[in-house]
């Protein structure tokens, strides 16, 4: 099993970052590896979506169910795809400038992703591409936030 853990401090609010992560329909606009998203179900705080990966000649799709806690977290779990395991967690922790109160002006994003492929053949083909995607995932959302909300 592989694991990615990354955290970053941003001058964007937890709400702004939560919105970017939960608007899965917009992923093809800024994730170079994602060429299509199908939202399969929305039920309360849960979203099930199929993401189509197309990168470096590799094409695969996988489905996750995300359980969202508004402005706080997104918990991902595998529904189907080329993985034996895929689960992850985004956390959006509010921060204020020292000595200030009120609405948070910044946040700490903590991201964790655990994954393993369902076969050695799939791992040989998909793993190099997915490893790169997983390790640049948070950076892609940070860049998107800066384009939409300005650099902090």
Automatic annotation (TrEMBL):
Cell inner membrane among keywords: no
GO molecular function, one term: ubiquinone binding
Keyword DNA-binding: no
Coiled coil: none
Cross-referenced CDD domains: COQ10p_like
Coenzyme Q-binding protein COQ10 START domain location: 12-141
Family: Belongs to the ribosome association toxin RatA family.
Name of the protein in its database record: Ubiquinone-binding protein
Species for this entry: Roseateles puraquae
